[in-house]
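task queued by scheduler; priority normal; single chain, no ligands, no partner chains; default sampling; output format set to structure tokens
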Amino acid sequence: MNDARLWIVLVAIVSFLAGSAAGILTARVRATPPAAGWPAYAEWIGSEFELDPERRQALRVLLDQYATELESRRRAHAARIHAELEPELHELAVRYEAYIRDHVLPPSQRARFDALSLPHETLATAH
């Protein structure tokens, strides 16, 4: 192979590699996920359907109300679940407190642990 053909092949390989790298980088940039949350959703709806400012504001108000109601229902549901689980949580707290007392603490510290121990209701609801 003469020098001109060698250089042509080398330029073609370098061009191919550079183009591949640029394509991969471009694909990664375009693949970034869209922003999350209600503001991003409102912006997407507003842009997608070309809403005027008044309708965009109405959409934001509706989404704020929806988010408030959704959070209220989540809290109510969580409270109901917690109330149903309370007996199990109490038993779990008692069991783990016993594990801590009997298997983690040295025997000389157990009386002090008993004196300082939290009520089981507090331990069961601690986060």
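post-processing summary
- Residues 53-104 form the longest helix (52 residues).
- The two ends are 74 Å apart (CA to CA).
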